[in-house]
């Protein structure tokens, strides 16, 4: 870390949650961390558990349910992941596996 004003690396942390440069005295706030991605990952994990054993078989039906709670990109990725996991959990023939993978591919589009 360095001072944005003078470039010095002699930085101190103040009790007021600010950094201060020991050379020039410039102060700046500690950047706030965005934790919203964690909330999204937890939501996706819960939805995965909810729908992994659900009787919904097609990408379209699964997407309809997931779009109620996620944006389109995340819903499509999660639907494909669920369909692929279902295929891998079951002992399927090559033709059935191909159908599941094709359906998962449609989720990405």
Task: Write a structural description.
This protein has 109 residues and is mostly helical. The chain folds into 2 domains: 1-32; 36-108, no CATH class. 52% of the residues lie in helices and 10% in strands. The protein is built from 4 helices and 3 strands; from the N terminus they run βββαααα. It has a 3-stranded antiparallel beta sheet with strand order 1-2-3, with no helix packed on it. The radius of gyration is 24 Å and the shape is rod-shaped. The model has no long low-confidence stretch (mean pLDDT 89). It comes from Pyrobaculum islandicum (strain DSM 4184 / JCM 9189 / GEO3). Keywords: Coiled coil. This is TFIIB-type domain-containing protein.
| Spatial arrangement of strands, main beta sheet | 1-2-3
Total discrete domains: 2
SSE topology string: EEEHHHH
- Radius of gyration computed on alpha carbons: 24 Å
Question: By helix and strand content, what is the structural category?
Answer: mainly alpha
Indicate the percent of residues in helices.
40-55%
Note the main sheet: 3 strands, antiparallel
Q: What low-confidence regions span 5 or more consecutive residues with pLDDT below 50? A: none
Number of DSSP helical runs: 4
Count the beta strands.
3
Tell me what portion of residues adopts beta-strand conformation: 5-15%
Shape verdict: rod-shaped
Average pLDDT score: 89
Termini distance?
Answer: 42 Å
């Amino acid at each position: 870390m360095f001072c944005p004003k003078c470039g010095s690396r002699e930085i101190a942390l103040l009790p007021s949650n600010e950094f201060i440069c020991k050379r020039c005295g410039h102060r700046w706030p500690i950047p706030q961390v965005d934790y919203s991605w964690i909330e999204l990952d937890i939501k996706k994990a819960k939805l995965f558990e909810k729908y992994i054993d659900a009787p919904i078989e097609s990408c379209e039906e699964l997407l309809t349910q997931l779009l109620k709670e996620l944006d389109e990109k995340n819903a499509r990725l999660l639907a494909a992941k669920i369909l692929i996991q279902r295929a891998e959990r079951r002992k399927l023939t090559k033709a059935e596996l191909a159908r599941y993978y094709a359906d998962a591919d449609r989720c990405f589009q």
